[in-house]
Amino acid sequence: LSAQGSLLYLHALHAAFPQALAPRGTALLSWAPARPRAPAGWPLPTLYCTPAEAGALPSRTAALRVQLLFALRVRALRVLEARLASELHDALAALRTGWPELAQDLALGRLSPGAGLPEDVRGRLQAMLVPDAARAAELRAECAQGFEGIVQRLWPQLQVVVVGTAHGGERLYCDALRQAECKGLPLYCPFYRAAGALLGVNLWPEEPEPRFLLCPDWAFCEFLPCPAEEEEEQQTVLLGELWEGREYRLVLTARPGEYRCRAGEVLRVAGFHKQCPVVEPVRRESQALSVRGESISEERFCRSLCRAVGMWPGARLIDYVCVESALLGASSGACAPHYEVFVELRGLRDLSEGQRYKLDHCLQEDFPIYKSFRFKGSIGPLRLHLVGAGAFAQLREALGSPIPMPRVLREERLLAVIQSTVIS
User: Fold this and answer.
1) Using one digit for the tens of pLDDT, what is the confidence trace for 361-384?
2) Which of 199, 316, 390, 417 has the most beta carbons within 10 angstroms of its beta carbon?
3) Same domain, yes or no: 330 and 253
4) Domain range for residue 382?
5) 271 lies in some domain
6) How is the beta sheet containing 261-273 ordered, strand by strand?
């Protein structure tokens, strides 16, 4: 990140939450195997209570668990930070299932023997721990009461939850955290990145929906108006030519000497701040389902899926991925090309055939072109599979990279992981 971006973030955070930058008052739950680095700024050693070395462990699961243990030691935590909302969700899922072991580790001041840590790293991390029976007892008492609002109960001085990415597929996890573990706390996404480049900063930490001020000197951005005009070769516009309320495709040249390319991102101009545009990410065009050229975007598919889940009493959507049947080969059956959808739910263990059909029905209602292909038989019936709890955490571990997980699977190795977790 640029120093300017980090300073803007820290200034906005301090202005909204004056106690947030207390020394050792931030816990970082993030996996960065290549290099330990804070997602919301440079790694300030006096700011974080979680050791940087823990985030660089070879195993994502081990990294998040060790960081969670160090975070639990500090009752006076002010900020909980994660590179991705899904990382924070997975760490809190580990708390939900493993709090007795975590409480024992706190009481004894140790790292669990089965944590899968390299011995040299274990020794260095172990030296930082001391027994804390009182904090362990507090953890047991709070977890025994349930997990709604658990974050604020465990850390009563916590002011804000910071996540590096809160749009696209990560939005599901932000919504889930707001409704359950992080209930009552603001979620702040400080930066907007695309194609690996830092493009904008969120100066409004207390607002529920993230919007980003595009900074002119961070990258060279051009914009293609949406929907595309009839012209054969559409002309791009620059920052000063954007209109409030309109949507644009982003064309990016991140650094001098790099190729100019479409970033696959669609932005909506929400307004202006000191003559610079303020944008909201709308969708990623690269994430789309298209077995017959229908091109259903990730964002719109997710909206239909959430509507279908709302028709399943007691169900709450944790995550999902879609696969075009061609990726499964012969195992997808002899019917026409179709979608295979894998979902993880909470509150519901099985679905009837009628409930499973709800998603296909919602897609037909929301997308006339899909309905037309279904009527003609050129797209077969959608197949819905339920996966076990923690299936998507396994998928992110298999991905082997600290980036948002794709919601449209294209890789056979990732498909094999999610198929192994199907329960119905």
Assistant:
1) 999 999 999 999 999 999 999 999
2) 199
3) no
4) 288-420
5) yes
6) 191-194, 197-201, 212-214, 276-284, 261-273, 247-253, 220-226
> Is residue 194 in some structural domain?
no
* Three-state SS annotation for the chain: CCHHHHHHHHHHHHHHCCCCCCCCCEEECCCCCCCCCCCCCCCCCCCECCCHHHHCCCCHHHHHHHHHHHHHCCCCCCEEEECCHHHHHHHHHHHHHHHHHHHHHHHHCCCCHHHCCCHHHHHHHHCCCCCCHHHHHHHHHHHHCCCCCHHHHHCCCCCEEEECCCCCCHHHHHHHHHHCCCCCCCEECCEEEECCEEEEECCCCCCCCCCEEECCCCCEEEEEEECCCCCCCCCCECHHHCCCCCEEEEEEECCCCCCCEEEEEEEEEEEEECCEEEEEEEEECCCEECCCCCCEEHHHHHHHHHHHHCCCCCCEEEEEEEEEHHHHHHHHCCCCCCEEEEEEEECCCCCCHHHHHHHHHHHHHHCHHHHHHHHHCCCCCCEEEEECCCHHHHHHHHHCCCCCCCCECCCHHHHHHHHCCECC
For 88-104, what is each residue's pLDDT tens digit?
999 999 999 999 999 99
Per the CB < 8 A criterion, the answer to whether 131 and 107 are in contact is: yes
189, 221, 251 — which closes off a domain?
A: 189
What is the predicted pLDDT for the residue at 345?
Answer: 92
What six digits make up the tokens of 125? 């991390």
Q: Are residues 219 and 128 in the same domain?
A: no
Do both 280 and 183 map to the same domain?
no
Residue 292, CA atoms < 13 Å, CB-side half-sphere: 15
Q: How many whole angstroms from its chain centre is CA 332?
A: 29
Q: Are residues 8 and 31 in the same domain?
A: yes
Do residues 241 and 348 both lie within one domain?
Answer: no
Choosing from 284, 314, 347, the residue where a domain stops is 284
pTM score, whole prediction: 0.89
Handedness of CA 164, 169, 175, 181 (dihedral sign): negative
Asked if 335 and 398 sit in the same domain, the reply is yes
- The type of residue at 392 is F
Residue 35 inside a domain? The answer is yes
